[in-house]
Amino acid sequence: METSGSFELRKFVAPEFVLGTDARLLAGRYAKNLGARHVLVVTGPNIIRQGWVKGITDKLAAEEIDNTIFSSVTPNPRDHEVMNGAQVFKESGCDCIVAIGGGSPIDCAKGIGIVSSNGGNILDYEGVDNIPIPAPPLICIPTTAGTGADVSQFAIINDTKRKVKIAIVSKKTVPDIALIDPLPLTTLSHELTAHTGMDAITHSVEAYVSNASSPVTDINALESISLMHAHLLPAVKNPKNLEHRYQTMVGSLLAGLAFSNASLGAVHAMAHSLGGFSDLPHGECNALLLEHVMAFNYPACPKRYETIGKTLGMDFSGCSVAEKKEKIISGVVSLRETLGITETLSDLGVKKQDIPSLARNALQDPCMATNPRKPTIKDIERIYEEAL
Amino acid sequence: MKKHSEETPDWNDQRKRIIGLGESSIRKNYFPELQQKILELEKKNKDLNAAYEDLSIKEEELRQNYEELSTAEGRLRESEEKYRAVVSSSNDGIVIIQDGFLQFVNPKAAEMLSGAADEFVNLPYLEFIHSREHQKIDEIYQKRMHGEPVSSVNESVLVNKKQELVDIELNANIITYRGKPADLVYIRDIRERKRSQKALEQAKKKLNLLNYVTFNEIKNKIFTISGYQHFIKSKIGNAESPILSFLLKEDDLLGDITESLKFAQTYQDLGLKIARWQNVNQVFLMAISHLDFIKIKHHVMIGDLEIFADPLLEQVFQILADNILVHGKTATQVTLRYEQNHDESVTIFVEDNGVGLPAEIKESIFLPEFQKTKSVGLFLAGEILEITEISIRETGTPGKGARFEMTVPKDGYRFGGCGTENGKSA
Description:
The complex is a heterodimer. By secondary structure, chain A is α/β, with parallel strands linked by helices. Chain A is 50% helix and 11% strand. A six-stranded parallel beta sheet of chain A has the order 1-9-6-4-2-3, with helices on both faces. Chain A has a three-stranded mixed beta sheet with strand order 5-8-7. Chain A is globular and about 65 Å long. Chain B is an alpha+beta fold. Chain B is elongated. Chains A and B meet through helix 13 of A and helix 1 of B.
């Protein structure tokens, strides 16, 4: 479904954000501005180990704000981790949350906030616009360039019982402030830089072809693709280079703003299903599924994919539609492989017999609603099979 | 937790919700509620401020009341201390009786009862009154507690722990003690006074006996001398004899001695007997009954006035009536009346319509010198009345009649027999 050129109503939601080196060190000031007296710091053990948390809690202390650190968060944050965090928030008498990390701590922090305000179980709030009461003040400090959770209205939580990732989509989960600092990226591993970078690119591609896209999300999505194309590989190769890290951080930010407002598509719906099923890395799942979903979606919005291709530096002069499609998909595959993501889903342990279940869950994911082409369950099963 | 459906979601609906136009603006949807809360808080704040102001005013009032109370308490404490000092050091015993039981006993009362003050508290007061006095004292106590008129000063006999008898004078008044009426009683040991009175009475009796014997002896001698004189006069025979003139002078001297004896005999009884309440009307009528008062009309307008006076009061009225008969000359009537004065005293008037007293003797008729020369007994009348602080003077108009005024102090008279006098006991 092509929506560009229509004049359907759109709005654009973005949090306040501060971008630049040492932005993270403003956490104390902003927490004070939000009236915080006791902050729950939600983070992961690796981030603490790398020393990024200490500098931030020192700033909180300098403003005479108490803090309690909650670091029992794993990749693909579990529902019970959210509930534990909400318990700690309540028992510690917290009134504000600071999330430091990639998508997992930030999504977990969003979940903790939702439960703290609304009670019940985090799984009760699955779906779109199901949160009645705003969460406590939330400050996000991303330490990866890809999640976009620091500016998005999305929170993805692992339903451990059903083994599926649920998506909570609500403007009430948009953080109050994002402190976007490229410095923590300098300690990011090669692998994680590649996975999160591909995540950002997938965000932009899916937002751009989303049936809920708008001129404003388009600008963000395309600029994000452009920046990631130019700086992701250099950042992987030169992890300490702050310029590349900064640009990938901007790319991640723009991708986040784009998908937060235009939503995503089948790649994320299927990746969520995979992540819940076998706890696979989210960025890698996206990277492995992107080319196959693009191939499926291409007929629905070829112009948009062509624009993406041009943004990736491709020249389509004299190319037929099929050639353009082939060129674009090849370009994405090439990028993935250049980044070192060369496995298949089989390599990650996914079996053919898992596919029907994975497809059923993917079809239930809210991200599927904005995919430009409506897939059947067979379509999804086939895409999974192609990615095996 | 919500249940999950296997059905494919309505993607159009999902998409519309993702676009989010149906959703309220984020983070600000609380504002109307917040505004309402702010208004409520402002109102509460206003109410609280008003309440605080009220509280401040009340606090100030309380503070003032507290200061007043503190001052009053201080005064009360001071008063209590004085009271305690007075009560503790009093030479009179002081007890408080409530519902027939002793509730307070001061050190002096405890000493009179031969024990410590605490051991008498909550015991019936009658335990310490001689049994022969029980009926009288309890009746007085009950009447007083029921508001009936009763003398506040009474004598009785106390029996202490050692079973010793002590003559006492009780002076009682009703007070409020611990929120209830009680009898505050001053107890005075009058054993010494009683002994003195008894000794005085004994002495007076002896003196009276001596006077009686002496007067009768002198009277007998005078009678004998008069007999001898009469015998001498009859033997002389010659009426011109100069001896007769000496005998007549001796007669006059014997007459003076007889009058002096009569006066002395009356005067010696003064104050011998205890003063008592006397009905003025009855005493006056009794006094004139001894005299030839048939030709004198008497108007008695004295009502049931009673005065506290020496038993010789009748003698006073007799002297005044005798003066009317002897010196009033043209007197045909006498009036007995009274008037109450501003200072609550009362004046009794004895008036006649005779010739009255010459102005030059008004001041001297109550002097003993006048008594000796005129023998009118007014000096004696003055002395009798003075015993109970009644004054007498003459205020009549010469030529129009004599008027004697007797002024009785405010606590020395009453009407109707009892109850309205101040401080006198029968």
